[in-house]
Amino acid sequence: MSLLAMGFLLVILQPSSGQFPRTCANTQSLLRKECCPPWEGDGSPCGHLSNRGSCQNILLSQAPLGPQFPFSGVDDREDWPSVFYSRTCKCEGNFMGFNCGECKFGFSGLHCTERRLRTRRNIFRLTTREKDRFIAYLNLAKNTPSRDYVVATGTYIQMNNGSNPMFRNISVYDIFVWMHYYASRDTLLGGSNVWRDIDFAHEAPGFLPWHRAFLLLWEREIQKITGDENFTIPYWDWRDAEDCAVCTDEYLGGRHPTNPNLLSPASFFSSWQVICTRSEEYNSRQALCDTTGEGPILRNPGNNDKSRTPRLPSSAEVEFCLSLTHYESGSMDKMANYSFRNTLEGFADPRTAIANISQSGLHNALHIYMNGSMSQVQGSANDPIFVVHHAFVDSIFEQWLRKHRPMLEVYPAANAPIGHNRENYMVPFIPLFRNGEFFKSSRELGYDYEYLQEPALSSLQEFLIPYLEQARQIWAWLVGAALIGGIITAVLTGLILACRKKRKGTSTEIQPLLIESEDYNNVSYQSNF
């Protein structure tokens, strides 16, 4: 069976992850505010007959938000997804998905009980066959309609509060382009008014967890439409790069011979049409992106504003960023100083960690350097370089997690910009994910990076790791308890010895070895205990 035919068959048979489930994009579901589709395995909502999940009310975080968004009740993304749905599937155990029909990341098997760890590899270490397969998979995703998901082309008010659904079909690749746009778009306030200082995926603590979830969902979709369960996103290690090494026809598209802003006609990607790139037009019409093609991918790497981004990031800058001990700080937005997140995102100087929005470092530097579709936030995912770039950014996040081993409480629970508190649901994912769920090691989510791999653990080590981690988190209490216990033991021992001495006399000539042997052993045992 050809790869294309196989992909088409799998699209028909498999559920996917993205924005609005097709089965919930209708008047009945919107008016009832319920999205609890049946699982095909038993025909029951959320697979409840098979104990996979149940339809439940959504519990929203009540934690206070930061001051960056001074409105309430004007944006469909507030308290996601409550404007559209108040009841969704809550999956049990290792089950996941909008109908609990899938396994959580890192699990597989009929009952989602089998652990699985995949490795993301350097794109330049792929064999020619593996690299060509990756490019073929990208093209397949771009040209394969999503069976299970559609995207909204109007706001809830424009849908007449659900009685006039406005949704559109979209390809597997473009549904992720649309999600990136939707999470970062401006708020439409009516008339010609918009609010720009809002972003549910950038400029705040959720930047790294959001893109981690985004890549995992994107990776899974490729696995489904190709039938290649071992597929992982390759990464581009751009540290100390002198130019765009992936910008060749062999990889993700070379430069056009006569128009430096376009891709070479010899590249597969030169025929791709971008979507959701005209934010000012949407704002002027008070409308959402309708996913209509808007022209070819634009890219002119290196011909960017050098005063803003003079070069690609260096290894030294990445190492300095990794040395920062605070994940987040201060206002928890793009003005945060000494914040690992803000420095890696690129709004703080990668040599000092002081916020400087006139410069673009690390993650942002790559986007600006590409000087085209990648350089505009809302439409940046149109360029396939986006995924290999963000895979490497995610690997830096992973390095930081392994180096500093933060507890979940390090991720801000309150006062972050809208949508970025720990318990907030990420916009616009359905199934629902909280920011804090992806503030953990990639290995817990079923993947690793080739250059970060460590020796395989023995079964005993794997068994002990969860208990050692719990002990690490309460080590201060354990040390305190040990000190108090030692003091109490010493006092009791002293009292016991005093009583014995008083009862048996104090003559060292009669019992010269009493303390040196018998009682000394007792004291040692209790002290060790």
UniProtKB/TrEMBL annotation:
Checking InterPro entries in the record gives: Di-copper_centre_dom_sf, Tyrosinase/Hemocyanin, Tyrosinase_Cu-bd
Molecular function in Gene Ontology: identical protein binding; metal ion binding; tyrosinase activity
Please tell me where this protein is predominantly located. membrane
- Per the record, the domain of life is Eukaryota
Q: Where are the transmembrane segments?
A: 474-498
Compartments where located: Melanosome membrane
- State which Enzyme Commission number(s) the record gives: 1.14.18.1
Ranges for the Tyrosinase copper-binding domain?
A: 202-219, 383-394
Q: Record's Gene3D superfamilies?
A: Di-copper center containing domain from catechol oxidase
- Tell me the membrane topology, using the record's own terms: Single-pass type I membrane protein
Tell me the keywords, alphabetical order: Copper, Glycoprotein, Melanin biosynthesis, Membrane, Metal-binding, Monooxygenase, Oxidoreductase, Signal, Transmembrane, Transmembrane helix
Where does the record locate the signal sequence feature? 1-18
* One Gene Ontology term from the biological process aspect of the record: pigmentation
Query: Which cofactor does the UniProt annotation name?
Result: Cu(2+)
The entry's cellular-component GO terms read: melanosome membrane
Family that this chain belongs to: Belongs to the tyrosinase family.
Q: What is this protein called?
A: Tyrosinase
Q: Native species of this protein?
A: Urocolius indicus (Red-faced mousebird)
Q: What's the encoding gene here?
A: Tyr
